[in-house]
Design a protein that fits this description.
Order of helices and strands: EHHHEEHHHHHHH
CATH class: Mainly Alpha
Subcellular location: Cell membrane
CATH architecture: Orthogonal Bundle
Low-confidence stretches: none
Membrane topology: Multi-pass membrane protein
Largest sheet: 3 strands, antiparallel
Number of strands: 3
Number of helices: 10
Pfam family, one: CbiM
Shape: globular
Distance between the termini: 39 Å
Structural class: mainly alpha
Protein name: Putative membrane protein
Mean pLDDT: 88
Number of domains: 1
InterPro entries: CbiM/NikMN (IPR002751)
Length: 222
């Protein structure tokens, strides 16, 4: 869910900008740039993923005057590249959407935090819990990390934006719940399906594209 019109107070906008700026600096320092610059295959995957995400984010529906919903696809990016590169690619796509006039410049910091950073963090958190507590199994990875992880990521992302609107006094919680929150499960299901289908195809035909998936462990050793 995105806020497309400048309705939030400056404290939320600047707070989000500072938080995102610090996180981005940390991400830029930790990314293995030498590997990315050396490997053309990784570059093609990054640019291709960004282009597809721009197209995916064009498919959106208005919930209220200020809110829109669309498929995020951040779980697929996170599982493919790790959360740091997923945030970087998602940030570039959000910037492109803002340059195209689809998103508001004023809302850019909040949109980056709620629709890029948070879903990437949720996706990687689901992956870490699954890896720590469950067997390394193809179907466990597919259903929990890809399908369920994507649904949970978009649900928490939408809830975070709804909470900000409520805490900032833009909408009452009753209106937010009536217009949006109660429908979150309906949004989570197709998000999970899209990410799950894409990830399943890559796991079968191009497992080497997925940074968090070791075909030898998840398939060969089973």
């Amino acid at each position: 869910m995105n806020v497309t019109v400048g309705v939030l107070s400056t404290s939320w906008i600047w707070g989000s900008a500072v938080f995102y700026g610090v996180l981005l600096l940390w991400i830029v320092k930790r990314i293995p740039w030498s590997v990315i610059l050396r490997e053309r295959g990784i570059q093609h995957l990054l640019f291709g993923s960004a282009a597809l995400l721009v197209l995916l984010w064009q498919l959106r529906a208005g919930v209220t005057d200020y809110l829109t919903i669309y498929f995020l696809g951040l779980t697929t990016l996170t599982l493919m590249f790790g959360w740091d590169l997923a945030v970087l690619v998602g940030s570039v796509v959000m910037l492109v959407m803002t340059l195209l006039g689809v998103e508001s410049w004023q809302m850019l910091p909040v949109n980056l935090v709620c629709n890029v950073v948070i879903p990437a963090w949720v996706s990687i958190a689901v992956l870490r819990v699954v890896e720590a507590r469950l067997p390394k199994n193809f179907f466990i990875y597919m259903f929990l990390c890809a399908f369920a992880g994507a649904g949970l990521a978009v649900g928490i992302s939408g809830l975070s934006m709804a909470l900000i609107l409520w805490l900032d006094g833009i909408y009452s919680w009753a209106k937010i719940y009536h217009d949006y929150a109660q429908y979150l499960p309906l949004i989570m299901l197709p998000e999970g399906l899209i990410n799950g289908i894409i990830m399943t195809g890559m796991m079968v035909f191009h497992p080497d594209w997925i940074r968090t998936f070791d075909a030898k462990i998840y398939i060969d050793d089973q």
